[in-house]
Amino acid sequence: MTTPRKGALPAITLRSDDFDALDRLVGDLPGSGPAGLLQQELDRAKVCEPKAMPKNVVTLNRWLHYSDDHSPEVRRVQLVLPKEADIDAGRVSILSYVGAGLIGLKEGQSIMWPDPSGAARKLTLVKLEDPEPAN
C-alpha cells in the first residue's frame, strides 16, 4: 500500500463525535487500503468538541467541493458513513480513498493522497457549503 509521506500531510481537525464514529468504524477493519489510511488520519488528527469546530473544516455529512489534479472539474460530494453512500447522489463513503483524504481538511488545503492504484494525486478542498439547519 502506498502511504502519504508524513512530512507532506497538512494538519487536520476532527469533531469528537466524528472521531468516535470513525474510530469504531475502522476498529474492526484490516489496516490496509482506505481503512488503513483513515486510521492514519485518526492517529494524527486534532480532535475538538463540535461547538468548537471551525466552520471551514470538512466533517461527516457536510457537502463540499473539491478538485483533483487528475481531473479539471470541481466535484461536489458529501462525506458519509458507508451505509449511507450513494455515488449517483454524490454521497461518498468515508471509507473511499477520496473520503479518507478529505476529512478534516480546511478550505483551501491540499493533500497528496494515493488513489486505488497507489498513484499519488493532489486533492484540494475548494469550498464547503453551509451546514443544513438543525430541525
TrEMBL record:
Q: Which GO terms describe its molecular function?
A: kinase activity
Q: Which domain of life is it from?
A: Bacteria
The record, for InterPro entries, names: GreA/GreB_C_sf, Tscrpt_elong_fac_GreA/B_C, Tscrpt_elong_fac_GreA/B_fam
Segments forming domain Transcription elongation factor GreA/GreB C-terminal? 54-129
From the UniProt annotation, give the residues forming the signal peptide.
none
By its UniProt entry, which Pfam families does this protein fall under?
GreA_GreB
Keywords noted in UniProt: Kinase, Transferase
Recorded hits in NCBIfam families, A to Z, give: PRK05753.1 (NF004396)
- The name of this protein is Nucleoside diphosphate kinase regulator
Natural source organism: Brevundimonas guildfordensis
